[in-house]
Design goal:
Blueprint (H helix, E strand, L loop, with lengths): L3 E7 L3 H13 L6 E8 L5 H8 L4 E5 L5 H9 L6 E5 L3 E2 L6 H10 L3 E9 L10 E2 L4 H8 L2 H4 L19 E3 L1 E2 L3 E5 H7 L11 H11 L3 E12 L15 H14 L5 H22 L4 H15 L4
Parallel strand pairs: 1-2, 1-4, 2-3, 6-11
Antiparallel strand pairs: 4-10, 5-11, 6-10, 7-9, 8-11
Helix pairs in contact: 1-2, 5-10, 9-10, 10-11
Length: 306
Amino acid sequence: MKPLSVIIVSWNTREMLEECLRSLYEQPTRVPFVTYVVDNASVDGSSEMVRNLFPQVELVENEENVGFAKANNQILRQVVTPYALLLNSDTIIPKSDVFGPWIDFMEKHPECAASGCRLTFPDGSQQVGDAGYRPSLKTVLCHALFFSRLFPEKCKGIFLTGIPKRDGEIDVDWVCGAAMMVRMSIVRRVGYMDEGFFMFAEDIEWGCRMKEAGYRVCYLPWITIVHLQGVSSGKQKIQGFSSLWLRNVRKIFERYNPGVPGRMCDVLMGLGLFLRALLYFVAGEKYRNKARRMFHYFEDIIFRKV
């Protein structure tokens, strides 16, 4: 039996999807795997490309865009492999055995429900948002005021930052759904992805739910995948942000911090966005577009447009 099911959800990402699948099959891995592509009603010929160029892929074509969580759940509910890897269509697997060491880790740590890897841009720089911690007053504050960057060992923020160069895993509360391996026996106990999240932050909710159930969620810094980030969303994300992401994080904050108004999350996140917008603006013309976007998100969250 193949130990791994790779699940790729795609929406109008034909070129990136082709590059992703090509890198997936060119990877010299020792791990047998089966690949599923769930196409969320793309109109760019994605399904035709998969059928013509990758006949070994199990293709599921939805008649409408059902969102990221629901599309993944379609496959998660039917896989028979011990592990499943959620993989974004805008990722590129390096020309090395990624799956072998990843499966080895999961086999050695049966208490681990999910694990993620280091996500980088094509130039090798690390992306913010490949793992992190449960949204709380402390983690949101540490993120907003840069404490998690300045003092990463003492001040945990929403995002994992200041990652030391090490071979060992890092225990976190969530890992990014762009490249997330899950143990199916535990998934069946804690439940599948929350389909109330159409897109963004469903990985945060899922990881936090796994931790709440008593399992580990681990970040593996020695495994790297390139993530082109933001293709399906029209490149609306910057460093893990989007207006919808902010709204969903508030929802998770309210769930895990009963009695604390969700508005507190808005205010702290808004403060962080305003400070980043200011810093990008001061940094010069090169960063003005980022400054404008950060200020746009600040307006959205403070004036309750999201």
